[in-house]
Amino acid sequence: MHLRTCSLIMFNDLRSHPHMAYSASFLVRKLVLLYPEWSIFVVDKLDYCASLRAFDDIQHCKNFEFIKGDITSQDFMLFLLKTKHIDTIVHLAAQTHVDNSFGNSLEFTQNNVVGTHVLLEAARVHKLHRFIHISTDEVYGDIPLTSPNANEETILSPNNPYSATKAAAECLVRAYHRSFGIPAIITRSNNVYGPGQYPEKVIPKFILLLLQDRPCPIHGDGSNARRYLYVADVAHALDLIIQRGEIGEIYNIGTEFELSNLALTEHLVGVIHPGSKSVHDHVEFVEDRAFNDRRYAIDSTKLLRLGWAPTVKFAEGIQKTIEWYREHGDKWWSHADIESALRAHPLKPPAAH
After folding, report:
1. What is the pLDDT of residues 29-56, one digit of tens each?
2. 3-state secondary structure at position 134
3. Alpha helices in the chain (DSSP H)
4. Which of the four, 79, 98, 312, 353, has the lowest number of CB atoms within 10 Å?
5. Rounded to the nearest 5°, which phi and psi values hold at 167?
6. Each residue of 304-345: pLDDT tens digit?
7. Where in the numbering of this chain does the NAD(P)-binding domain appear (predicted)?
8. What is the DSSP string of 313-331?
């Protein structure tokens, strides 16, 4: 597949997504630098966790443009698609943090469901070559150790308001593909980590706390497990899907590497405090998150057949991530925002006026 002139990358929080929206800035930089013949437009409403510093090294590039805007505005999106001659949408926009979704679920519906519907309507009117919708492995729900990994045909069973809105958005994408011929592809990914991620997520949060000699708050008994992908590997997967993915298909983007929250903390302690005798010297056990799924596990065979495989080992990716936070962690966002994010159960900071 050869893109003509334009690729539109859309997302609402540049830094926060544990799955895919966080990967947007890496994907944008990759596409801008590798494909100067493409025009890359980034649309973002600059929510509380956003940082435009991610694009400092590409601001000079002629094929890159940042546009502040909200994807839930139908007139704005139609105007943008028409005037910028967009032929491809990569839809990474999402309100994402699960804890926040319990206290402000309607905002998640507005951003994740209504926002997706607005984009689909704009795409239906405008006509596109490709609409890539980024979802999450959380739509599959809890995957017991005794069950096989979820493949793309596994029934969706979301267990929290965030994942329910992502599943609902997927249903709209599939319906528009069937009803109106929108050239859609859906992806579902494991947790993403790497430099620059907003520290309400477990890996950057724990790194910053350990660098400050503060305890890491572990939900429940720490046995809940997740699979982690380094952000560059996810950006590579999306690049491949943009160019070679088959219209109408769903692609899991995952790894077999899995850690419990306690094992993750032990690994981070070993790197940041190598002389420590016990991980328990650096943790505090707190009340578990509401309806906390035990684990997510997905089968990525279809994407592997397309030619993708993760290349960054967890130890290597974590080392790069820790080094980034050593250098930038206290400077990237305001102190107040960082403190709010570092809580055991973080709350969304109040909107700036």
Report:
1. 999 999 999 999 998 877 656 667 778 8
2. strand
3. 24-34, 74-83, 98-103, 105-108, 115-126, 161-180, 202-211, 231-244, 261-272, 301-306, 314-328, 335-341
4. 353
5. -65, -40
6. 999 999 999 999 999 999 999 999 876 777 666 788 888 887
7. 25-321
8. -HHHHHHHHHHHHHHHTTT
- pLDDT value at residue 150: 97
Backbone φ and ψ for 250, nearest 5 degrees, come out as -120, 140
pLDDT digits (tens, 9 = 90+) for 79-125: 999 999 899 999 987 655 455 544 567 888 888 999 999 999 999 99
Alpha-carbon span 115 to 243, nearest angstrom: 24
User: Any idea which residues carry the catalytic annotation?
Assistant: 137-138, 162
Task: Give the CA dihedral 253, 9, 94, 113, nearest 10 degrees.
Answer: -100
Q: What is the pTM of this model?
A: 0.91
How far is it, in rounded angstroms, from Cα 21 to Cα 255? 18
What φ, ψ does residue 313 adopt, rounded to 5°? -65, 150
Q: Which two tokens stand for residue 292?
A: 């906390």
User: What are the structure tokens assigned to 6, written together?
Assistant: 């334009």
- The string of DSSP letters for 142-171 reads ---TTSPPB-TTSPP---SHHHHHHHHHHH
Give the three-state DSSP class for 175.
helix
| Residue 331 exposure: Cα atoms within 13 Å on the Cβ side | 6
- DSSP-derived pairing of the beta strands 283-286 and 216-219: parallel
Amino acid, single-letter form, for residue 115: G
What pLDDT is attached to residue 105? 73
CB 62 within 8 A of CB 73: no
**Residue whose C-alpha is closest to residue 115's, from 83, 74, 81, 68:** 74
Average pLDDT across the chain, whole number:
87
Cα separation, 29 vs 49, whole angstroms: 19
**Do residues 4 and 87 touch, judged by C-beta distance below 8 A?**
yes
